[in-house]
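User: Could you walk me through two proteins back to back? I'd like the raw sequence and the structure tokens for each, with a short line separating them so I can tell where one ends and the next begins.

Assistant: Of course. Protein one, sequence then structure:
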Amino acid sequence: MSPYDLVIGDRAYSSWSLRGWLLFDAFNLPVKLHTARLYTDELSNLLKDFFPAKTAPTMRTPEGVVVPETIAIAEELASRHAEAGIWPANPAARAIARVLAAEMHAGFVALRSHCPMNLRVSYTDCARPDEVLADLKRLEVLWQWAQSQTGSTTWLCGDYSAADAFFAPVAARIAGYNLPVSAKVMAYVQAHLAHPSFRRWRAMGMIDGADQEFYRRSYPGRPWPGPVPLAARPVDGTTAENTACPYSGKPVSHVLEIAGRRIGFCNAFCRDKTVADPEAWPKFMAIYQP
């Protein structure tokens, strides 16, 4: 059976695409990606093959059924892959997780509008209006309620679930715009920033096309508050200690340097996503730290 297809927008900016992709990567489900730049004709042209969808992300099942909207994608994947743990197994925790995902899907308009997701930057301040502060208070109520009801300490409803995937872009917004939250909420945000799938997505987003002007802000900047990546840089030439790309197995054509070592990849994207955050990629780390 063919894998699922998933249409996504720019990784640095498309919060809905991040949610949809996490439903695959965080739960170890195979998927073939189809990417398109936002604010161009690329997305509308790509979606002509995914009727009746009009947004990213959009999934197509192995049988060819098109499923737009992250709520529908989550439910369909959960029904097909019960073993993956997309929703909690406990009925009470599962009900709470669905409440959280539904409110995230439909609400928090002020937060989304004033703080559009941009994984390439972080600011010291963002002139937040009262409506954004109200959304943050609602988030705190929901998250504390979920954790108190389920006894969870790191994630919202026990193990990482679709509810957490839905709030990953919110964590990115809180981190990116330095929004005022409690220590407990910030601990939840930090758990997202350190999550392996989130780190992989952000690493790709850092090098996935040019900056989008729509997301540019003039606020004072600061370093990204997540885990600090290992220092690596792209270098010229094809000389490397390995002969095959750790991801594809294809011959080396692009090389990075890290701690005085040269490790090769089959294309610029494979190399540059690794430069962005080497520890996000287990197959690379298997070479770097055998």
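----
Protein two, same layout:
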Amino acid sequence: MVRSLKILLFLLCIGLSPAFAQDTDTMTIPPKMETAAVKDTLVPVKKKFQPDAKRAGLYSALIPGFGQLYNRQYWKMPIVYAVMGTPVYFAIKHNNDYQRYRKAYISRLVNEQTSNDEFKGVLTTAGIKQYQDQARQNRDMMILYASLAYTVQIIEAIAGAHLKNFDISKDLSLNIRPDFNPLMGGAGLSLAVQLRK
């Protein structure tokens, strides 16, 4: 009984499959006429630019932002330079502060009474040490952020090259179709997503 039911469902699925087939309203041209028609309507087709992902990554690694330039995504270059330039600017600023505090701290360690540093009478030796450590920590964090931004812009250039001509059709239809799979136990229904026409 179960076997006859499976056979009946299989035949039903085969019989219904033409009802779910894609409907095409295209006219078929006989082979002899097709060549003549195609020869008359030959139009040079401009090939879309497809960037090489390895090359985009290499360009971004050598000069930040040039992978985006190679991908012809010009609007991303200012973003790359802003995201990378901000931590670089603050890393330089914190490094200058660190050098000032370091110089004053060393001067105080040599001789606190004769020290003629810029923080004399403003900060104690312990205060200078605290500011020095904080400036060093901030500088190191900004270097880490700049390195992270550098890595992310390389990855973005590679992903941008891969997705440059990714086709997203407006026709995203979902069809229910009969399906027969002997390995999974017989007939059933399957969902088919049509991404492009």
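Helices lie at 2-16, 31-40, 53-62, 66-70, 76-110, 125-162.

Let me know if you want the two compared in more detail.
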